[in-house]
Amino acid sequence: MAKNIAVIGTGYVGLVSSVGLADFGNIVTGVDLRADIVDTLNSGRPTIYEIGLDSYLQRNIEAERLHFTTNGDDTIAAADIVFVAVGTPPKEDGHADLSQIEGVARQIAANLTGYKVIVTKSTVPVGTNRRIQQIIATESGQTPGRGFSVVSNPEFLREGKAVQDFFHPDRIVLGYEDERAREYMEDVYRALYLIQTPFVWCNLETAELIKYASNAFLATKITFINQMANLAEATGADIHTIAKSMGMDGRISPKFLHPGPGYGGSCFPKDTKAVAATGDEYGVDMSLIKEVIRGNDRQKTITAGKLVKLMGGSPAGKTVAVLGLAFKAETDDVRESPAIEIVQELLREGATVRAFDPEGIENFRSAVIGEGPFGGGLNSDLREKIAEAAAERLHYCTDEFNALDGADALIIVTEWNVFRNLDLDRAALLMTGRVIFDARNVLDPEHAREKGFTYAGVGRV
Ligand code: UGA
Hints:
By secondary structure, this protein is α/β, with parallel strands linked by helices. It has helices at 12-23, 35-42, 53-62, 72-78, 99-110, 128-140, 162-167, 179-188, 190-194, 204-235, 239-247, 268-282, 287-310, 338-348, 361-369, 380-393, 400-404, 417-420, 424-430, 445-450; strands spanning 4-8, 27-31, 66-69, 81-84, 116-120, 148-152, 172-175, 199-202, 319-323, 352-356, 394-396, 409-412, 435-438, 454-456.
């Protein structure tokens, strides 16, 4: 039977889940504190860039299965199931900030009009679902499993492929404690049950840790191949042939073995830090993951350093075209994007930057102006200097050719398809210099050299 669902938070996870759950036939109300977001969504316009999201959003609004509101209290009171999808940003010490989650738990307790299942979609440290259960029990006076149930249902969607991932997940993980909650969740996901999606039923703590273990492992795989690529480069080997051959071993798999400028995004950096912090808290050695975090930071610096070296040791007074600002292709998200560090380094060293991204320019621009990721980790003096340099020497371009106009060098930071097919004849006509650093290995090195460029990729000669 279709359920009446409240989804608290309309970020990536919350919005895609709202739309997907409505498409499964449930009646869904998405809740956000911001009235402008709610208005935009109710008018059928997505607030994030995700392939296919707009049509699913419009279709479900029209079918009256989906709408958005700022009124959390009434929405929770009317719901059978409350999905929690609010943010868990990292604090200074690496721990996830759970204040939003705890606030929602209190709000649920205050609106617990009857039995409800509370489902945590946000990525939360081990023990958080137990804590949510405790807050709701204490504040509402209800017993877990009777007045309400808590379910941990971590999300594995990838930005850029979020809609596809929601409808075709590799698995659905459900941490639960009682049969009634399990029956509710089976109803919610009946559509996926029917297409034989694997369901993993486990306890709350296991579900929470599955999510961290998965992200930490993928981050480890990327850092491993990045370091191997650096070694391949130093020794004259080819990382693509290495990765491909490694991947032929079914135990390894070829996925997530693409070297690059380091992983970014809102998940891997945050989740690796959180799992390391949890290890410290429990006195458990998480040295591997800690080294992955350091290795990834170094990869961003190594990338910027390689470009500078290719340009003869200093980019001062020169112009660099930076193609790709988002942390990966098919998203407008620039959070923890390697492009931030690379652009900062170029500006710091006196270069002029001509930047272009098919979707991420606006986010990058606000990151530069505001207190966003551009300033993250820098002292205020340095931040000010970079902001000043950015105002004078950072130009946002209308397309890739506009970015190449008058450039001494080109760096490709994000693997957008449009950069894979870059017309190098036109590039040669527009650029004043001949340096290409392909930090994603999207171009054919031989072709680039034939066209007269000094080409360098990652882990290949
Ligand atoms: C990641 C996971 O893939 C999802 O399963 C998970 O749900 C999500 O985090 C989350 O925790 O919510 P996402 O951050 O969207 O998804 O991006 P990925 O496609 O995993 O890429 C992450 C970073 O790794 C990107 O910067 C990407 O460029 C980089 N990467 C990925 C590589 O450098 N090499 C690879 O081979 C693969």
